[in-house]
# Entry
Amino acid sequence: MYVRIDLDGPAGRLRVSGHGLPTVELVRAAGARTNRLVPIGTRDRAALALSVDGRPARIRPARGRLLRRSYRVDATVLGARYRLLPCSHVASRLLRDGRRLGTLESSGDGRVAADWTAPAAPSPLDIAVGTALAAAFGTGAAPSWETVGDIVGELIP
# Structure
């Protein structure tokens, strides 16, 4: 299935579309404080608006600090609960209502690689939402012990 990803990080706009896919849009509010490490520019949920085929959806990115779990992104779309959660340095797992759908990788450059490993094929909505979350926030995170080690290493002369 062809997935088109249009990401304009500086403008704070992401659009995921494709034949047979619902259109997912994520927009950062004008004037919102930006973070260059986040492809969409922020993890501030108050500064983000998510929609699927023009219908509003809920997005809740965690703060992205220290612990790998703090980089998760939750979204509620048409009654389904999605979670994108880092599972390695470069990849994140996508869950729908607690069930694993697959693993996605994105370095924040507007490209997403997906390995859909669920027993059943993902729905077009799953593909569009997962791709949008991975493209907007990137995937993967260092484990907390490594992050703490890096911080301590910087403090020791």
Observations:
- The helical segments are 124-137, 144-155.
